[in-house]
Design brief:
74 residues, mainly alpha, 73% helix
Length: 74
């Protein structure tokens, strides 16, 4: 199911996490803003939820890629 993940180099996912995950960098990255809203219980608008998922997805992909790399070596 996740064979496509094995074909893409890790550096692509790391770059996506750095560029998309921390965009926009000023005044505060969206990911940290949305995580603060989630912790405070104010993350209610559908747009904010989508924004959190959108900016968090590269980090999830990096995690999945690292897990698959670790399992393939074991």
């Amino acid at each position: 199911m996740l064979v496509w993940l094995d074909k893409i180099p890790l550096v692509v996912f790391v770059l996506a996490a750095l560029l998309l995950g921390f965009a926009p960098s000023t005044p505060e990255p969206h990911i940290s803003e949305k995580l603060k809203m989630l912790a405070a219980g104010t993350l209610r608008r559908p747009l904010d939820i989508f924004d959190l998922l959108f900016h968090a997805s590269p980090f999830v992909l990096v995690g999945l890629k690292l897990l698959r790399m670790r399992r393939s070596r074991a």
